[in-house]
Amino acid sequence: MLKFTEEPDFGKPEEETTLSTATAPTPAPTPAGKCSLPLEPANDTSVSPADGYRFGTVAGSRQEYGANSGRIKMKYEFSLEFKTSAEEGILFYVGDDRHIDFIALYLKGGKVHYGFNCGSGAALIVGEKAYHDGQWHSVVFNRTHTNGNLIIDSEVVGVNSSKGATKSINVLSPYYVGGISPNISNEAKFNIKNVNGSFIGCLRNVQLNSKNLGDLRHSIGVIPCSNKVEPGVFFAHTGGQIIAHPSFRVGVVIDIKLDIRPRKTSGILLSVHGRRDFLLLQMVNGVLKFSVDNGKGAISAEYTPPHEHYFCDGHWHTIQAVKSKNVVTLSVDKTSVEPGIGIPGSSSTDTRDSLIIGDFNRTLHQRRLRGLQTREFYVGCIRNVFINEEEQKLDASQVRGNVMVSVCPTT
């Protein structure tokens, strides 16, 4: 899925390619007896290394380069291009072993921050505009002795000088691009204003003094910057889950909303269990089932579509599942089904385990969980998850297994 056979290299391509904002293609009609989209997304044959690379789809996403740090002691000029819709993320970082001397470029509040320290005091330059607009932007961040400049889209947006008389910077490789190693996050956090997440978006043409940055040593969670994606979370066919809440109590009332675009007809969408009580949203052979147990037996509502492959037709489908005391309701694309009504007198769903989006924890639960009618992985995309009208932030730190956050393939 979205792979190159060669290692990513951020050298300047001979011919620069500018990508337009992606528009999801209209899915082909669902073939009779099968889903519209393949189980595993098709490779985008139109994408090339000149289009850049996408970061932030997994926890710890980054690249690490080895470079001769002697080239930057007295002066340097780094440059790169980025595009993102995220407000925060690390674009570039390198420091010494104590992270006193450092060079950092990152986004915070959508604004580009450039910081450096020659050892006697840090300098910080912040652009005035926000650049998380999904368009490509060029950045040059340079320094001569104690004086630094930040240039965005060919415009000088700020200058500043580090304090003290020290004029040289002494840093050690690796040079981090798109994120940093978890091993240095505590030491580096002051230099990057607590922005410890990987950059979510695409980078290209990362250079030092108009040359390749150096030798690529490690590449973690970096894929080609295909234009055939859209916002969301993708669950692969090998299985994965997002721990939305480590311990969750459903209680008396819960309102769940989410959009799905599956690639198969069965799979677990959302679940949470207690000792006896549970809440489950699952697809079983094309039928969407919402089940809750308050301790006196399961209460269920089902949406049976016109045909088994209705949900996997390549389009997004909006689901709303509501539990209020002993009544459950379910709607798909604003069409409601007959509610499920349980035994009066038991109104609270007393769960305590993790609220999981996607597959259940198979290591923890070796036996069949109560209410479970399928053990198949959910495969496909999910977006716009709301619980009790609060949007759920789904990021890479919550992922277990093969889940790609921030983008959904459209092929």
UniProtKB/TrEMBL annotation:
InterPro entries linked: ConA-like_dom_sf, Laminin_G, Neurexin-related_CASP
Composition bias, Basic and acidic residues: 1-15
Disulfide bond recorded as keyword: yes
Keyword entries, A-Z: Disulfide bond
Domain Laminin G residues, every copy: 52-225, 232-408
SUPFAM superfamilies: Concanavalin A-like lectins/glucanases
Disulfides per UniProt: 381-408
Region (Disordered) residue spans: 1-48
Protein name listed in UniProt: Laminin G domain-containing protein
Annotated source species: Cryptotermes secundus
